[in-house]
Design a protein that fits this description.
two-stranded parallel ribbon; 1-deoxy-D-xylulose 5-phosphate reductoisomerase N-terminal domain-containing protein; DXP_reductoisomerase_N; about 100 residues; alpha/beta; elongated; about 15% strand; Rossmann fold; 2 domains
Length: about 100
């Protein structure tokens, strides 16, 4: 996948403060692309990147829009960090609704 190219374009368009990517190689490529463009965006990578982003102190609201079970842990991280969570997928409620409602 060449997802760092798409992510570079999205960073140019939306100028986020933070970006998280599971693929560490793609994150390195993104960092290099953004540095060449003179854009300073904090980038984290690895399997826990979405969980880390969801729990950042600077964030008060998290949109949980990762499809399937991949979105469960980041959603739980956001809830446990006291964030307001906007669910944009049904899997979270279908599989873990009781757990999420109790958090």
């Amino acid at each position: 996948k060449d997802n760092f190219t798409l992510m570079t374009k999205q960073c140019l368009d939306f100028r986020p403060s933070w970006v998280g990517m599971v693929d560490k190689r793609a994150a390195r490529e993104l960092k290099a692309n953004l540095a060449q463009l003179g854009i300073a965006i904090k980038i984290i990578s690895g399997n826990q990147a979405a969980c880390e982003l969801a729990a950042l102190k600077e964030i008060d609201t998290v949109m949980a829009a990762i499809a399937g079970v991949d979105g469960l842990l980041p959603t739980l991280s956001a809830l446990r960090a006291g964030k307001r969570v906007l669910l944009a997928n049904k899997e979270s409620l279908v599989t873990c609704g009781r757990l999420f409602m109790n958090e």
